[in-house]
Amino acid sequence: MELRDYLRVLRRNWVLILSFSLIGLLGGGAASLITRPTYTAHTQLFVAIQNSGTVQELQQGNTFSQARVQSYAKTVETPVVLQPVIDTLGLAMTPSELAQKVKATSDLNTVLITISAEDDSPVEAAAIAQAVSDSLVKAVEGLEKSDKSSTSPVRLSIVTPAVAPREASAPNTKVNIAIGLLAGVILGALVTLVRSTLDNKVRSEDDLKKITDFPVLGGIVFDRDAVRKPLLVESRNQSPRAESFRRLRTNLQFASLGQHGGAVMVTSSLPGEGKSTTAANLAITLAQSGQSVALVDADLRRPMIAEYLGLEGSAGLTTVLIGNAEVRDVLQPWGEGNLYVLTSGQVPPNPSELLGSEAMLSLVRELESTFDVVIVDAPPLLPVTDAAVLSQHLAGAILVVGSQIVRQGDVERSLEALALVNSKVLGIVMNLLPTKGPDAYNYSYQGYGSKEPQHARKVDPAEAKALTAADGRAASRFPVSSRYQ
Description:
- The protein has 19 helices and 12 strands.
- By secondary structure, it is α/β, with parallel strands linked by helices.
- The protein has an 8-stranded mixed β-sheet with strand order 5-12-11-6-10-7-9-8. Strands 2-3-1-4 form a 4-stranded antiparallel β-sheet.
């Protein structure tokens, strides 16, 4: 992954990272609130040699003191020092337990020993620190004597008596909050990376480039009004969605779609990706450019074209294929342009057989000889074989990919299904693309990079589901298992 890929992942999941950061922040604050305060008292001792000789002897004594200081600091945690403290203060604990509360340190090249004592009570902490210091002075004096009658060559003096602290040493609220925030950010980033690694949905053109070299002919931006008004003629002429279809029309003309004699299938991997609305609006856009267009609803399991365009759907493609009518008798004109629609007709029990029949081939050839462009709305590729069978009669196929709906593996299998029947894939159309956010569709001409204003907003998943449900009728009413079998 490149740097921009990581940045896109972070932009997609910034809410997740922010949530973990807030949880860490609150966790650090909560830990400080529930932790019982601990107070730390300090006292400091000076180690000296009881010698008044020459300068050389004093220097040797100082070196001796520094060498002894580390040993004295270790002695603080022994029962020799701690047991008298327990007896003096009447503490209900053993020397080993008291040792957990006491700490002695000494800096290198100095003769100072610092003793720290922790306790829930500031007064008790100061008392323990002072008692340990007094006990250490006596213990060292006794340990350094060569016999009972001699004096110790080392003398410890308390230079900083213990004082009850005013503020607790723990918990450190600022540190806990900082640690919680850092932990939340790191955890959120890790979860984001794992989630992005496991998430293989197609969200943008960059995701398509990872799995196929077929060109992206265009991107259809999401429009909340399309839920109620799926056709372009029902929306503003200069809307981002209308502009998307005009760009798609232009790109398709460069892909040789607009030449006389070629029928093209519009399909998708799964139901609900917007293939029917794409086919209908593409046909309308082509007709508006002055070409004669035939739109054929070949989705014989879940036909939608008649409902979208407000046409009679009882007589159509199946009526012609079984020989009950001529195609010219059931073609219905639509709109002010040269657009004619062949609806699906009655839903048959054997869609695959009809779409792969010689009658279907003859019908396609007749339409190709009559119209400039023939757009065929075909069933999705993965649930059934209808589209693969039908594609053998057509000049090419356009695969509609619903952003944030279909997975990369589904797109790969769809392209493989078309390759098995030697179908020519003209390109891919991304549908339901957002115009804001990390996966926003970029209105720019390939090779020039000139951008146009972006409107709209990021796709709301709930609205996207509502739009795709309209293309395939609600899944609860027409489940794939029953309609695409």
